[in-house]
Amino acid sequence: MAYTNETMAWAVHVANSQDILIYGAGTYSFFEFWNATCSGSNSCQTQIFDIQSGSGVYVYSLATVGVRYMLSVNEQGLIESLYNGDGYAPCISAWTPW
Predict the structure, then answer these.
(1) What is d(CA 33, CA 84) in angstroms, rounded to the nearest whole number?
(2) Does the pLDDT of residue 15 top 90, yes or no?
(3) Which residues have a Cβ under 8 Å from the Cβ of 34 and sit 6 or more positions away?
(4) Hey, how many other C-beta atoms are within 10 angstroms of the C-beta on 39?
(5) At 82, phi and psi to the nearest 5?
(6) By the 8 A CB rule, do 56 and 97 touch?
(7) Enclosing H/E stretch for 96
(8) Span 26-51, pLDDT tens digits
(9) Residue 95, Cβ neighbours under 10 Å: how many?
(10) DSSP assignment letter at 62
(11) Looking at residue 16, what is its pLDDT?
(12) Are 96 and 58 in contact (CB under 8 A)?
């Protein structure tokens, strides 16, 4: 896997927020240098969905494509897509801060 940049773009970045409920989110990173081959190996970028600690965010039904870590806290990868395969897109049912 080539990860030229840790995070080229955040699809979701939550900081200093409370009582945020996210139901049914899909984040996709299809290209790296105008080449789509990275999406099948989840290697377009390492992270795409970040929550800063102290934020009250609850995520239900998250799917990602093209990234190594589906969800990060404080820009540190937490949930790896490799272990959450579900057909085309890796998915998790729920994540809560506790």
Answers:
(1) 26
(2) yes
(3) none
(4) 19
(5) -55, -35
(6) yes
(7) none
(8) 998 876 666 777 777 777 888 999 99
(9) 18
(10) E
(11) 92
(12) yes
Can you give the pTM of this predicted structure? 0.84
Half-sphere exposure of 27 (CA within 13 A, CB side): 26
CA distances from 8 to 12, 34, 44, 74, 89 (A): 12, 13, 9, 16, 20
Locate tokens 């190594």: which residue?
68
Owner of token pair 């290697």: 43
26 and 13 in contact (C-beta within 8 Å)? no
| 6 close to 47: Cβ distance less than 8 angstroms | yes
C-alpha–C-alpha distance, residues 34 and 93, integer Å: 31
- Neighbouring C-beta atoms of residue 74, cutoff 10 Å: 11
The tokens of 87 are what? 């057909």
**Strands 57-65 and 20-28, how do they pair?**
parallel
- Mean pLDDT within 4-18: 81
